């Protein structure tokens, strides 16, 4: 189906009042990619206002996010951004490489006992920006390295399974040591552990970790988003020579909240009491507005939304610092997330589900120097982020030839251009499922991996059924279903997916010759 809506330009003046810095006129832009973990597409306040409200599938969340709102109202908002594989590690693999799991190496969450990890021989977005003369930095959660017992009992990296190694630092994530697996990240501040007031830190900068060396464990009890924002602000200020000021910088900030746990011990309780306590929202039904949600399952909504608001606050401190330093005008800020959060919808929590609350993510481009405010319904997937960012930064000629995503920077910089072909659908992946999403339908095929047979195949009509409450059986005689199955087969071939390589379920999926 052809998407006919192009960028709708809006006349909104930046509340940050970005300063045009004369020396930046011919300079390369700085780039910051900000992606909190597990933040639903509609968990932002601006969706409750027009013209954004009209773009919401269903209803948005009653959250307080003044920083995200400002980025949206002074940038380009994507209304159809999708996490192709809504899980932490696979998303990171695709975002970093512009390639699907079969090529980048990550087919599931990195975890103790599993062998997959980001391939060292694949060129990532940090590699490309480094080669283009950028300072490169990473703050927050990584989750792309094979999880092994390479630490001593105190959490210090030893690089061996033998004593004093032989201990895990975390079951689901691990330290990324210097070398090929860091992919040209010069300045490194990694936060491990899904505990928002007990981050395990490894850093290339001893000044931030009590004089310790890279690979030695440092712990902090400060709220993780606040702690990381503090270090980023120091980096922006270049407080102790963290970067070469004659070069632009490329930064990724991967915050852990609002990822679970969602208890009071892991919640910014000031945000909860100020915005989401019972005096503001008497019951969960007043917070969780989607009619497909099980309110008992969604009991953690106050904590989830409080951490969304807290994350927004600390992102705001970084944006404000960029403005103070005169850098915001010439900085590309991307705001997105690795996947959504079910929040009780269909009685489920978390992600790793091919339903809208799990796959729908925010995607905002804020670049005052070159990008006008607007809205686009262009369907953007995780593999498109790397080539699009390279295009926005004027580095499209450096895009690796093996990239499987598309560069949509021209649509952002020149709304309505006919120089790009807009995608009609995006590929959806799970370990045990494949699917496709277009501007109306979500089609999903689930399998029993061991038995090698389909366990369920269904279709959602998101126009008639925005809360996906009715699973329709696939009727291959319907033209819409046939077109979706053909598109799925094409995308599985293009992504070199194992289902295509084995021609799985060829009696249903229409594979190209």
From TrEMBL:
<dbReference type="InterPro" id="IPR017850">
    <property type="entry name" value="Alkaline_phosphatase_core_sf"/>
</dbReference>
<dbReference type="Pfam" id="PF00884">
    <property type="entry name" value="Sulfatase"/>
</dbReference>
<protein>
    <submittedName>
        <fullName>Arylsulfatase A</fullName>
    </submittedName>
</protein>
<dbReference type="InterPro" id="IPR052701">
    <property type="entry name" value="GAG_Ulvan_Degrading_Sulfatases"/>
</dbReference>
<dbReference type="InterPro" id="IPR000917">
    <property type="entry name" value="Sulfatase_N"/>
</dbReference>
<feature type="domain" description="Sulfatase N-terminal">
    <location>
        <begin position="29"/>
        <end position="394"/>
    </location>
</feature>
